[in-house]
Amino acid sequence: MRLRPTVARYAVTSKSLLYLTETIVLAEKIHAALVSLSNASSVFTGCDNQGRPLQGNRHAHIFCESNKGLGKGNDGEITHTTIYAPMGFESNDQKALEDLSEVWGENGLEIYVILLRLGQPQDFGGPDRGHALCPLLLKSQIWVSRTPFVPTRYPKVTRAGAAKVDAAGLQIGSPEHEIRRLLKLEHLPEPILVDPILYTILGQLQTGWSSFRRLRCIGRGRRAGNCGYGFRIEFSQPVQGPIAIGYGAHFGMGLFVPQDEHCIQDMGCNKKE
Question: Is the pTM of this model over 0.85?
Answer without folding.
Answer: yes
